[in-house]
Amino acid sequence: MERCNECIRCTVDNCRHHHNTKNYCTLDAIQVGTHEGNPTMDQCTDCKSFNIK
Ligand code: SF4
Questions:
Q1: In angstroms, rounded to a whole number, what is the distance separating the alpha carbons of residues 50 and 53?
Q2: Cβ–Cβ < 8 Å for 45, 31
Q3: Do residues 18 and 27 make contact, with C-beta atoms less than 8 angstroms apart?
Q4: Which parts of 1-53 fold into alpha helices (H)?
Q5: Which atom of ligand 1 is nearest to the CA of 48?
Q6: 19 ligand 1 Cβ < 6 A
Q7: How many angstroms separate the CA atoms of 15 and 18, rounded?
Q8: How confident is the model at residue 2 (pLDDT cuts 50, 70, 90)?
């Protein structure tokens, strides 16, 4: 079974790093960033490790 990182919960299942059956990331670490100049809410933040399947 594919290993997942239980420290990184994620529901983005169209990312190639998403676990196939569990809502976890399979990477050891991820990069989080923002596309906003002045982020004020969760929608302003992004997983920069996202990679389309
Ligand atoms: S890389 Fe980011 S978006 Fe992709 S599964 Fe991991 S946490 Fe989710």
A1: 9
A2: no
A3: no
A4: none
A5: 2
A6: no
A7: 5
A8: confident
Q: What average pLDDT does the segment 18-24 reach?
A: 96
b/e map 23-40, b = 16+ CB within 10 Å: ebbbbeeeeeeeeeeeee
- Looking at residue 48, the DSSP 8-state letter turns out to be T
Distance 38 CA to ligand 1 centre (A): 23
Q: Which two tokens stand for residue 52?
A: 């389309």
The tokens for 5 are 């990182």
pLDDT in tens, 24-51: 999 999 999 999 999 999 999 999 999 9
Task: Kindly state the greatest CA–CA separation across the chain.
Answer: 41
Please determine, for residue 1, whether its predicted confidence score (pLDDT) is greater than 70.
Answer: no
